[in-house]
Write a structure and sequence with these properties.
It contains ten helices and six strands, in the order αβαααβαβαβαααββα. The chain starts with a helix and ends in a 7-residue tail after the last helix. The protein has a domain of 177 residues: Decaprenyl diphosphate synthase-like (Undecaprenyl pyrophosphate synthetase). By secondary structure, the protein is an alpha/beta fold. Strands 3-4-2-1-5-6 form a six-stranded parallel beta sheet, sandwiched between helices. α6 links the parallel β3 and β4.
């Protein structure tokens, strides 16, 4: 009874609290690019006595609302880490349903016609059918005038940097560049032009749910100057109020950019 009463009070009070938070957010201090580590689906499922697939489905269902919150505060780029390269080593009994849940979630985003999707990661490590659906999602939303959403599947920060360097080397090999000339040209900008997120602004804010306070390989190169926000809630329980608290905390920080 006490729990039901508290839930009822929250349903009444939180909308007013959230509306006040939105009004007080400084528009000129909002992040342009937010990276989100959608962590805690399996632990959430265990906590509610459900199987792992149920946790992943609950997490997938929270993606569209979160993108709506990003639109609300003027974010222009969002990177969602849905599956790491390490996750690809999970047992097939868990990995195959997870890949299908991710593909269905991406298909749902395509159907909304609100966001421009861009897969990032080592797509060659994914099953061909999954990679094909991600590429099709990108093609289907290429003309959408909305938030750019990076779908990080089969993603690892170290793998991304290695792929960027490999791409840079192959590009110059085709041009016949000597090793000496290539060594003189390799710098931060040259590598940056070959990252999965080339041409995009680096993330201003990285959010990780589930209480874990580590990057785990997420956007290693791009997040050098990012602000971080760690939320205790498991991803399926991540609410609008949690998101608003994250961007409010970001707005209140003094960004020194190494100075």
């Amino acid at each position: 009874m006490a729990r039901d009463w508290k839930s009822g009070v929250r349903r009444v009070l939180y909308p007013a609290y959230e509306a006040r938070m939105v009004r007080r957010l400084p528009a000129d201090r909002m992040p342009a690019h937010i990276g989100v580590m959608l962590d805690g689906n399996r632990r959430w499922a265990k906590a509610v006595g459900a199987d792992t697939a149920h946790g992943h489905r609950a997490g997938a269902a929270n993606i569209e609302p979160m993108l709506g919150w990003c639109e609300e505060v003027g974010v222009s780029v969002v990177t969602l880490w849905l599956l790491s390269t390490d996750n690809l080593n999970r047992p097939a009994s868990e990995l195959e349903p997870l890949l299908e849940i991710i593909a269905e979630a991406v298909d749902s985003l395509v159907d909304e016609r609100r966001w421009r999707l861009h897969p990032v990661g080592a797509l060659d490590l994914l099953p061909p059918a999954t990679a094909a659906r991600l590429k099709a999602a990108e093609a289907a939303t290429a003309d959408v005038d909305g938030i750019l959403v990076n779908i990080a599947v089969g993603y690892g920060g170290r793998r991304e940097i290695a792929d960027a360097v490999r791409s840079l080397l192959l590009e110059h090999a085709e041009k016949g560049t000597s090793l000496e000339d290539l060594a003189a040209q390799v710098d931060v900008d040259a590598i940056g032009e070959h990252l999965y997120t080339k041409g995009q602004p680096d993330p201003d804010l990285v959010i990780r749910t589930s209480g874990e306070q580590r990057l785990g390989g997420f956007l290693l190169w791009q997040s050098a100057g990012s602000e971080f926000y760690f939320c205790e809630a498991f991803w399926p329980d991540f609410r609008r109020v949690d998101f608003l608290r994250a961007v409010r905390a970001y707005a209140q920080r003094e960004r020194r950019h190494g100075r």
